[in-house]
Write a structure and sequence with these properties.
The chain is mainly alpha-helical and about 450 residues long. It folds into two domains: about 170 residues, Globins (Globin-like, Orthogonal Bundle); about 230 residues, Helix Hairpins. The chain has twelve helices and no strands. Helix 6 runs antiparallel to helix 8. This is Methyl-accepting chemotaxis protein signaling domain protein.
Length: about 450
């Protein structure tokens, strides 16, 4: 452990270097042989500086005068000669108090503090009791608070030092009255030092207590915050777990939709194929019907031509019948000679009549064929119209299926994107859940640290 002043002064040499005269910091020793005493003018200047400081009232209260500073400067050679003996006697008494030795060993060492105390005592007889002197005493008070050296020990230490100084002055000075006056000056300066150090100690202690109270308030808020943080983290984890279940259900739902969409696309494609085949068959039927229609037209033309031939034959038959009738008349006139011709004429006439009868029957059949063909032609027109309508409907259905297929594929792609988003969302949920668990763990650690801090404060109090 270093000197208790080292942390405050940021000086590896601790308070030793601090008590040096700022105008003589390059000097490593202060002795009567190489350091001249402070002049009367300088003593006056430092005293005026003291009286203009915020601690002037304390100096006036203890009756510290400029003459006191002059008396103390006059005994500087005695202090320089015997300061090590004063310090040795002081620490010999101090070693009898274990509590004080524990504080010293925890924060510094006896050897370092011996040098510090020597500097301190020589500083009291330097005559430089001004603003810097006050600052040095305030630092002592702050350090004593930091190392938990209570004021009673500080006051007791002054008593021991004053006893040593009184004995030294009575021994070294010829005039007892002068020695007592000088000692009284030393006492007044000691009282002034104690006033500053103890007031600073109290201020530092009060500030420390205020900081501890503030820390306790912060600690209570920290405990509340950590408990709230744990509760919030647990609620967040539970909520995330529930939401994650919903996300899994959503993923299953999107997978089902994707599968349904895929099956729908397959069904649509299959339906398109079947409708395409049906359209091809319809086209084939239309072709056959067109061919049949052409054949029907040819049949009507043939029937018409047969009708014309039948009419020609019918005319020939009529003429033949007339000729047979004339032949019969001429045969009758011929008498016995025309009998054979009469038989022939009769047969010709019968044949002509049979021909007319057959031609009439043929004519009826041709008329029937023509009527049937005309009826078939009308039916074909209706069939052609219905087929055309059926083709238009199937084509529209095909277009609808095409659009449906495209739409289903588009929706399927969108569903895939949604699935990816949901997967990313699920990953985010997992990350949030992990972070929430970490927050809960950190909150528990924070609560544990807060409790440990509370235990330490409780022990300190």
């Amino acid at each position: 452990m270093g000197c208790p002043f080292k942390h405050l002064l940021n000086n590896e040499k601790g308070a030793l270097g601090f008590f040096k005269n700022t105008k003589k910091q390059e000097s490593s020793q202060m002795s009567s042989s190489n350091t001249p005493a402070t002049s009367s003018t300088e003593i006056s200047r430092f005293y005026r500086e003291l009286m203009n400081s915020t601690e002037a009232s304390k100096a006036k209260f203890v009756g510290l005068t400029e003459e006191d500073l002059r008396r103390l400067v006059s005994i500087r050679p005695i202090f320089e000669k015997h300061v090590s003996d004063i310090v040795a006697s002081f620490y010999e008494n101090l070693s009898q108090v274990p509590a004080l030795m524990s504080i010293i060993n925890n924060h510094s060492s006896v050897d370092k503090l011996r040098q510090t105390l020597e500097r301190y005592l020589l500083d009291m007889v330097s005559g430089e009791i001004g603003q810097d002197y006050i600052v040095r005493r305030k630092i002592i008070g702050s350090v004593h608070n930091r190392i938990n050296l209570f004021p009673e020990w500080y006051i007791g230490a002054y008593t021991l030092i004053q006893n040593e100084v009184l004995a030294l002055l009575l021994r070294e000075m010829d005039a007892v009255d002068q020695a007592r006056e000088t000692f009284a000056s030393f006492q007044r300066l000691c009282s002034f030092d104690m006033q500053i150090a103890i007031a600073t100690y109290i201020d530092s202690y009060t500030s420390s207590m205020m900081r501890l109270n503030e820390i306790e308030r912060i600690q209570h808020r920290l405990n509340e915050s950590s408990e709230m943080l744990v509760a919030t983290a647990e609620e967040t984890s539970a909520s995330i777990g529930e939401k994650e279940t919903h996300v899994v259900q959503m993923l299953d739902g999107t997978r089902d939709i994707q599968e349904s969409s895929r099956k729908m696309v397959e069904d649509v494609e299959e339906g398109k194929s079947e409708i395409g085949s049906a359209l091809n068959e319809i086209d084939r039927i239309v072709e056959i019907m067109d061919e049949t229609r052409e054949k029907s037209k040819e049949l009507i033309e043939s029937a018409n031509k047969i009708g014309e031939i039948v009419q020609v034959i019918h005319a020939i038959s009529n003429k033949t019948n007339v000729l047979s009738l004339n032949a019969s008349i001429e045969a009758a006139r011929a008498g016995e000679h025309g009998r054979g011709f009469t038989v022939v004429a009769k047969e010709v006439r019968n044949l002509a009549m049979q021909t007319q009868s057959a031609l009439e029957h043929i004519h009826e059949q041709i008329s029937m064929v023509q009527n049937n063909v005309n009826s078939f032609d009308n039916s074909f027109e209706q069939i052609a119209k219905q087929t055309s309508r059926f083709r238009e409907i199937n084509t529209a259905i095909m277009n609808i299926m095409d659009n449906s297929s495209v739409q289903v594929r588009s929706n399927s792609e969108k569903i895939k994107n949604v699935s990816r988003y949901i997967l990313d969302f699920q990953q985010t949920f997992n990350e949030i859940s992990t972070a929430s668990d970490q927050v809960a763990k950190m909150a528990e650690e924070l609560s544990l640290l807060s409790n440990q801090l509370n235990d330490k404060f409780s022990i300190g109090k």
